[in-house]
Amino acid sequence: MKRLLPVLLFISTIASAQQTLPFSPQTTATISASGTSANAAISGPSPQVVIHNSGAVTAFIKFGADSSVAATTSDYPVLAGATEVLSKGAAAYVAAITAGTAATVYVTSGSGQ
């Protein structure tokens, strides 16, 4: 048992070091989503974004490399009032669209969960 104690302490230390870090926000872009796709630049090299759909309808989002990115209603859905943390990969832009009713979508870049 005396030999197991250091091993257990080591494993416990590793497990606590791998805890999820809270999201650290950087900048926020606003997209006025409607039945026509609109997009915004994602600032900085941060790996994640928080997407918040403040509208009363589902918004659909799509990431892209440049300002030509356009979302369709077949892309990733963000439900009305929902907030999601997503990895953006190498994307520099995000586009949003709804089925017709306007919704404001906030995109905050940063890191963490």
Give an account of the 3D structure.
With 113 residues, this protein is mainly beta. The chain has one domain (21-111): Jelly Rolls, CATH 2.60.120. 12% of the residues lie in helices and 42% in strands. It contains one helix and eight strands, in the order αββββββββ. The protein has one helix at 4-17; strands at residues 24-33, 38-41, 48-53, 59-64, 76-78, 83-87, 93-97, 103-111. The chain has a four-stranded antiparallel β-sheet, with no helix packed on it. Strands 2-7-4-5 form a four-stranded antiparallel β-sheet, with no helix packed on it. The radius of gyration is 19 Å and the shape is globular. The two termini are 37 Å apart.
Q: Brief description of this entry?
A:
With 113 residues, the chain is mainly beta. Helices cover 12% and strands 42% of the residues.
The span between the termini is 37 Å
Average pLDDT score: 86
Spatially, the strands of the biggest sheet line up as: 1-8-3-6
Sheet bearing the most strands, described?
4 strands, antiparallel
- Quickly give the CATH architecture: Sandwich
The coarse silhouette is: globular
Q: What is the β-strand count?
A: 8
- Computed structural class: mainly beta
Number of structural units classed as domains: 1
Q: How many helices does DSSP assign?
A: 1
Range of strand content: 35-45%
- What is the element string, with H for helices and E for strands? HEEEEEEEE
Approximately how much helix is present in the residues? 10-25%
